[in-house]
Amino acid sequence: MRLKYDTIVIGAGASGLFCAKALADKKDDVLVLEKMDQPGLKLLITGGGMCNITRDEAPFEMLKHYGQSGRFLGSAYSNLSPEDTVNFFSKNGVDCFARDDHKVFPRSKKASTILNTLCDGSFPVVYSTPVTSIIKDDKEFLINDTYRCNYLVISTGGITYPNLGSTGDGYNLAKSLGHKIVDQKPTLTSLKVVNEDLKMIEGISLNNVTISVPKKKGKNKFHELTGDFLFTRNGISGPTVLDISRYCESGMVIKLNLNEKVVPVSVNQKLSNVIKKDTNLPSRLIDYILKRESIDDIEASNTKKANWIKINEKLSCWKMEISLKGTVKMGMSTEGGISLKEIDSKSFESKKCDNLFFTGEVMDYSGDCGGYSLQACWSTAYTAALTIDKRIKEQ
Description:
- This protein is an alpha+beta fold.
- It folds into 2 domains: about 5-185 and about 330-395, FAD/NAD(P)-binding domain; about 190-325, no CATH class.
- The protein contains 11 helices and 18 strands.
- The strands form 4 sheets. Strands 1, 2, 6, 7, 8, 9 and 18 form a 7-stranded mixed β-sheet that branches. It has a 6-stranded antiparallel barrel with strand order 11-14-13-12-15-16.
- The radius of gyration is 24 Å and the shape is elongated.
- The relative contact order is 0.19.
């Protein structure tokens, strides 16, 4: 195998493969280096194994779902929009469809369909090759004292799912080339609850829960999201929890509003039955709340006013202390990474090192659950590929 290429991409994940594929389609000379013994391991589990490649939404709507980083991704979306992504895969033989919730999947409902499309043999991949050193001179990069290239793309992902290869390797590589690294934490993750034993209500799901997370800055005091929610054995999960986790830190106290209310009545029925009639909450959850608040399940007519107040407080402002400890293996994405201040948002080239590019999750941005992270991978990868191709053609 040759040891010198125009471009070398480090990482055979979603963004690295897409970048290499885009370059190969333009007849550019590209090699991918991957530390695992096969490509796209994390890609294969996205969307529950069905691969939610993007969303059937306008770019300006999608960009709202990256927080303050949405502005940084604007140029990338201009180069490759959600519609462009669907067209790209369609031209490569992948039929896609959009569900009612706007999530877009391959018709096969198999992530392997997407992976096979990207790994179509149009570019070489060297596996079981972790990159441990990069040396840059005036003209080229030297990788592992072996491979040389004019353009280098770091597409190594974040820190979540370390068993699938995402262990933050790109951060040290970028740091060795002069970049600052923002502290990382897992995001799009379930949350552990440290002040309650939730085994009694494990598996209970609710559809209209509002979660409030304290803000560090800003006029509004809380981040708030409302939607589907799930109690787990030792914490909370569901789409709303995954999205709000981007703003969470260990030791933080969050608030749950179940958006239910009980009207005190004086009837000869058990308190739990009255709550059930008013709220339609699962009986197991009602029993748990009464037990947690040390309220006897007696007749409603004999229930003290103070206990009615305690029940409604629990339904509208259930406080939980959370922890992110151990969630690296559960998180779908990473908050933190290579500082966006040191990356050109129009090309994803380093401002510190000429001809060095970054794509995907290795950068300090994160999106909501439901296709946003993958679209950012595709768009940043394609934008980097466009810039590199233009320079190669101009040589």
